[in-house]
Structure formats: structure tokens, C-alpha cells
Amino acid sequence: MTTVTRTRRRFRTLLFLGVGVAAAALALVAYGLHALRGTELASVDLRFEVRGTQAPPSNIVLVELDDKSLNDLGVRPPLRRSVHAELIDRLRRDGAKVIAYDFEFTGRSPQKFAEDDPKLIAAVDRAHNLILAATTTDRHGGTPVFGAIDLAQFGARAGFSLLPPDPGAILRRVQYQDGGVDSFSIAAAERFLGRSISPSALGGRTGRIDYMGPEETVRTVSFSDALSGKVSPSFFRGKIVVVGASAPALQDIHATPTTPTMPGPEVQANAIATALAGFPLKPVSWWWNGLLVLVCGLLPALVGMRARPLPTVAAALASAAAFVVGAQGLFTHGHIVVVVYPLGALVVSSVGCLGAHYVLEAFERQRTRDIFSRFVPEQVVNQVLTKTDSHLRLGGVRVTGTCMFTDLRDSTTFAESLPPEQVVDIVNRYLGELTEAILGHGGTLISYLGDGFMAIFGAPIEQEDHADRALAAAREILEERLPRFNAWFRESGYGEGFRMGIGINTGVFLAGNVGSERRLEYTAMGDTVNTASRLEGLTKGSGHSAFIAESTCDALVHQANDLVFAGEQEVRGREGKIKVWSLPAPQAERAVEPAAERAYGAAVAPA
Fold it and tell me: What percent of the chain has pLDDT over 70?
């Protein structure tokens, strides 16, 4: 082995090791700073989904104040406290071991229902097993439940019912206590177990809730059915009964790892079940996670030292798959390992190793570039070489802008009377005039639609005066471009010329590139776009060349006082009518129906 060869091998080894160590170090720094916390939490949510729905707990049931109950009771929330008292008495008689009541009773009832308060307190005292929800504390272990009275004298206990939200307002965790008051779920579990739960059982300041599945996983009955005795006492006997609201109008619906719409009482039921099970889901130690990051960062480098790019990528993909499967297996057994940071290290290291391969093979790459440069521009060659696995799909964005549709009237009959070559030449001249107007006012021409087109203003470049630009383009088309085209048309002996229709609407729409790797097209879509198209169609037979939605008029930076009110139009797919305006036309070209004139007069008449 020559000295040059040994030097090259040493350089190759150091280069790949450097890539692996750098990737691992970058991921470790990100892990230490929690830079990808939201993504990591989402990966844990996905593990719940992969695990699937678990068997519901046998010792916890739900009583939910749902829409059915509100209809059965014939009342609007909040319910009178006497109704809650009746339900508590019913659950006590049916043998509920613990009643976890996820309704907050602070202050006093209205004066006309003042007799309800002692009834509810008496029912709580008779049950002697209530956990009552509190959302505030005095920071010293007190709550405002029943006016901050001592609940212990009634055998009851307050529990802090708010849960700490994670990014995206997703409820994943439960705290041990807040302001000296144990959490609602901890209090209910302790009452059921007959012993206290140590804070260390949570594995930290908060414990992760082990959700059993989406909403309706926990066995549930309606509030009204439980109140009227339609539910067998065996359903409640010896169990924790969680009572709360699930009707959407009561706004106690939350996002969780398993569903975006879980009622609050079922969230509490999952938290209680987790506490009873000893908080089985716990993250592994930080050093285990750090070791996983280091191994994932070094693995592509160790393979890349001796293998070509394809085997390196294959090894990385296989390692990623094995790691994900292993992480899911550990999750099933109650161990949460970080996934995003090790996979991030694996990806960065793999990409870096691919880069190292290409650095070491610079001559071959240069030769490939020379060959491709004979047929395509240099920048395209660079994209081919550096982004070979890119799908080139560009994501869309929601923008506020103005959309315009145009169409040439009576063009079909005309097209049938001339040879195709002449028709194409005439249409091209017409579209050329209109295109200059659109582009001249900063618009984006989305597509030609036969002898019309679709254009937008305000995207992809944001424009505060997008409505003004669209209106100015429409004016130029109707007052300059179309007359000039018609004059040429008449001089060429083709006929008298054409009329056209324009629809303009302003609002929010989605804009971006769509298509495949072989062909992309910038487009816009949404209700704003559909309405503009339909407004253009409504100009037919209306006597107006343009219909401008009121939303466009409202968005004008500089008001256009010469716009003509064209009445209210029914637009397919929209509820209610839309007020539309039009551009004034020379007297000789006006063909406004009397009804339209009256609509305009009514619109501007003094109130």
C-alpha cells in the first residue's frame, strides 16, 4: 500500500467520522435545547395511534352531560344545583365508590334558586365520597368551591382540574398538584385506593397520561339516563364515576394524543386510570437518549467509510426502520425514548456522508456535469446532482388577494366560421392585449382558459393594493385593450368585434405549485376563486361587462367613486346574495336593463 493510498484512506476515515460526530453533536445540542419539542411530542402521539385502542378500565365509568341530556331535561346550561344533587344521591344509592364531579361549584346560586345550594351540599355530605373540581386555588391549599368552606366535614375533597397544555393546546400530562391542591385525577385515585400517591410516581413534576384510545373508549352513559334511573346500579357499583360535560355547547372539548375532540370528563377518566396504574408511561433517562443520538449519528459514517452511497443510504434506512420499530416496542412496555433527535442525527449524518462521497468523487461528478452541460443550463445540472431525491413539490400558502376571470362573448360561433389557423392568430392577439394589461399592473397570469384567462393579484408577491391593481387592469382591458382589438378586428374585415365578461372577487385563497415532478403549475384555489369565476359567468345577459364583488370594493386602498351598483346576485355555492358593482361604460355601449338601473338607484338613494 503506497503512502498516497494510506493518506487517502486516513483522510476518508477522518472525513466520515467528522461527519458522524458533527451530526450527533448537532442533534445533542438540539436535544438539550428542546429545539424540536413539538415534533417530538407529536411522535409520541403517533405511537399512541400505532399502539391502538386499549381495553377500557373496569373500575371507571363516565356520566356525561351531552346534547341528549340537555334535550331530555329540557333545560339550558348551567343546570340548577338541585339537579346535580339528585344525580349525586342516585349515584350514592347505586353504590358508586368515588364520585369525581367535573363541574365547578363556586359562589352561590342566583337568589331565586338559593334553596338549591343547601340541597347540593347535603347530597355531597350524604355521599361522603365526592371529588369536586376546582380551577383556581389560593396558593395555600384552598379553593373557592362552595365559597371556600371546609369540604372535609362532608367527606369531600377538591381537586385541581386544569391540565397543563402542550404546544397546540394538546393535553398530554397531569401535574401532581397546583397551589397546594392535588390534581383532580390524583385526588380521585387516592380516594379509590385508600392511600396517597407519591409525587415520585409521576416520574417528574408532571406525569404523562396513558390514553386508552379516542373519545368514547371509556364506558359512558348520559346524564339524563343516570338521573332517571335508566342505568343499572351495577354499572356504577364499586367504581369511580366521573361526571362532566360533553355537549359541544359547554366548551369542554380538548385535543389529546389520540383525538382532537375528547370531552373533558373522559380526559380526566384517562388521567385517573393512569394514576391507578402507577403512571406506566415514563421517559427513559437522558443519558439513554443521548446514547441513542450518538449511535444514530455515527452509524452512517461507519458504513460510509467502506461502502458506496447506495449501501450507505440503505443501511441508514434500515437503521431508521429498526429504530422506529424498537421505539414503538419500548413504548408499548411503558418506556418513552426520543425519536426525532436520533432520527435527525441519522438523517444529517446520512446526508453528510453522501456529501462526503461526492467530495471524494469530485472528478466523476465534474465529468458528469460536463456531459449534462451540453444539453441543459449549468444551474439545472447542479440541481440534478444535489437534489436527485427531491420531488420538487412546492407547498401552498393562504393569501389574501384578488382573483379575476375573463371570457370572450360569442367566440364559439365566430371560431366555427374561420379556418383554425386564423382563429388561433386572432385569439392570440386578443390574449396578448389582455396579458399586457394584467402583467402591467403586477398581476399573475395563472392560466389561459380557451379565449379567457384566470389571473390573481397579491400572490406570489404580496401586494397591499391588490384590489386596486385588479380594478385598474379591468379598466385598461375594457377601456383601452378591448376597443383597440375590436378596431383591428373591424379593419381586418372579420366583423364588428367582441364583447367580454370579467368577474373580480377578493378574499383568502390558497396559492402554490401543484402537479408532478414532470410538470408543475402555479395555481390558486378556494371559495374566493370559485366566486370570481361565477361572477364572470353572471355578466352574460346582464348588460354589464364586469361584475366586481363588494369584497373587492371594500379592499380598495383608493376608493373608486365611479363604480356602478349592479344589484345583488345569487352565486351558486354561496349562502345569500352578493352585492356587485360594475365599471361605467360609454353611453353608446350601455345596455343596462331597467331593473339594473333601479337596483343602482336603490343602492345610492338616501336612507
Answer: 88
